[in-house]
Amino acid sequence: MAVLLKEKTVMKMENGEARCINAEEHLRGKVVALYFSAHWCPPCRNFTPVLKDFYEEVGQDSFEVVFVSFDHSANDLKEYMLEAHGDWCFIPFGNPAIKELSQMYGVQGIPMLVIIKASGDAVTKNARSDVMGQASKSPAQLLAEWKTACAN
């Protein structure tokens, strides 16, 4: 579980409504990806369905995405989650953790997918390219590589 998310408010959609979850419990033992994205961003809207397919293929028992939204309103975030996202976690709109995580991982543009270790250290800040290049490695192979890197 990513230490840096332990004390953060993390939500998950359930029947179209956001609910708080225990991040420490939910993320324990999983490869965690921070997904910096926004509804207003065309490249994000192109990548999100690809990430959703990847997420569904590898299964949420061993992989979890935490959406870090750059949307302009809580309504935009919710609409984007319901319209295009997988059944993954998110940081609520306006939460100070969004700025903190963005600065910590040097987000200069979106979409950006960062795989993090339990310590919070980045395994890769370019996981989007890995997921987009699935022709060379299967989702299972990528997940196995990330899992190994997270353990080191």
TrEMBL record:
The keyword Repeat applies. Residues 7-151 form the Thioredoxin domain. It is an enzyme of class 1 (oxidoreductase). It comes from the Eukaryota. It catalyses: [protein]-dithiol + NAD(+) = [protein]-disulfide + NADH + H(+); [protein]-dithiol + NADP(+) = [protein]-disulfide + NADPH + H(+). Its EC number is 1.8.1.8. Keywords: NAD, Oxidoreductase, Repeat. GO terms for molecular function: protein-disulfide reductase [NAD(P)H] activity. InterPro entries: Nucleoredoxin-like (IPR052259), Thioredoxin-like_fold (IPR012336), Thioredoxin-like_sf (IPR036249), Thioredoxin_domain (IPR013766). Belongs to the nucleoredoxin family. PANTHER family: THIOREDOXIN (PTHR13871), THIOREDOXIN DOMAIN-CONTAINING PROTEIN (PTHR13871:SF103). This is protein-disulfide reductase. It comes from Trichuris suis.
